[in-house]
Specification:
There is one protein chain. With 251 residues, the protein is an all-alpha fold. Helices cover 69% and strands 0% of the residues. It has 16 helices and no strands. The radius of gyration is 19 Å and the shape is globular. It starts with a helix and ends with a helix. 40% of the residues are buried.
């Protein structure tokens, strides 16, 4: 693992002080008390299943996770409860360096919404040493949320992995273009997110992402055409182009 990547993982693994860490039952009991029917009912508007949820806002969960401190064991126990909020907190608590490829696959198969998929990728999986391999593996999976996870993870890496070189992202753009043909809503939105995020990283990647977006936008099929046109609007906008030019000058 490159030194900078090791530092990133180590920083993500830094434990926060906790007086007495609760067990999974106590965390679930706390979530039950904090849940509201209104929040639970509102989840449907965002296509998040609420049949095994308490109705706790994400901000409340994040604050509680910070007060607990990281724990691989507690994260595993919370995930096994099956509760939506318990699994969300698990992604905030787990220790990236202790996450195995097998655990990533197991959790990924449990994804049943974009919310838990994206949260796991953005707050945990992209900080593990296995992230790049999982992008390629999951991108070929047939399951809608596993495939989305590939591109949510790629987008997260584009934001967080400052040590990654351009070539790593360039090698992933063919995966993006290939998946652009997938008509399923959560896949195409994940693909779009990855393409836009890569294209915002620097001028070289912007040019490569714009080329992919133009090819997708020219498609006669609805999904790739939407992905390409939406990405082009952002990646060729004066705001993004200006920001990338300024960044290049200051480098």
């Amino acid at each position: 693992m490159p030194p900078k990547t090791k530092q990133r993982v180590a920083k993500a693994n830094k434990r926060q002080p906790s007086v007495a860490q609760p067990d999974a039952r106590e965390v679930v009991a706390w979530l039950r008390r904090k849940g509201t029917q209104g929040t639970r009912e509102g989840m449907a508007r965002y296509a998040i299943p609420s049949d095994k949820a308490f109705g706790v806002p994400v901000g409340v969960m994040k604050r509680h996770a910070r007060s607990i401190g990281q724990s691989h064991e507690l994260a595993a126990a919370l995930w096994e409860t099956g509760w939506y909020e318990a699994r969300m907190i698990a992604t905030f608590l787990d220790e990236p360096a202790r996450v195995t490829p097998e655990q990533m696959d197991r959790w990924c198969r449990d994804f049943d919404s974009w919310a838990i998929c994206d949260t796991a990728c953005f707050h945990l999986f992209d900080r593990t040493p296995h992230a790049w391999k999982k992008v390629r593996t999951w991108s070929a999976n047939r399951d809608e949320f596993v495939k989305r996870a590939a591109f949510a993870l790629l987008a997260s890496l584009a934001v967080h992995d400052k040590a990654a070189g351009d070539e790593q992202f360039l090698r992933c753009l063919p995966l993006v273009e290939r998946a652009g043909k997938d008509e399923r809503n959560f896949v195409k939105k994940g693909v779009n997110w990855a393409l836009r995020t890569i294209g915002r990283r620097n001028a070289k990647l912007n040019a490569a992402a714009v080329a992919v977006a133009r090819r997708l936008a020219a498609s006669s099929d609805a999904a790739p055409r939407w992905i390409g046109k939406d990405a082009l609007r952002e990646l060729t906008s004066p705001a993004v182009v200006g920001r990338l030019k300024a960044r290049k000058k200051s480098a």
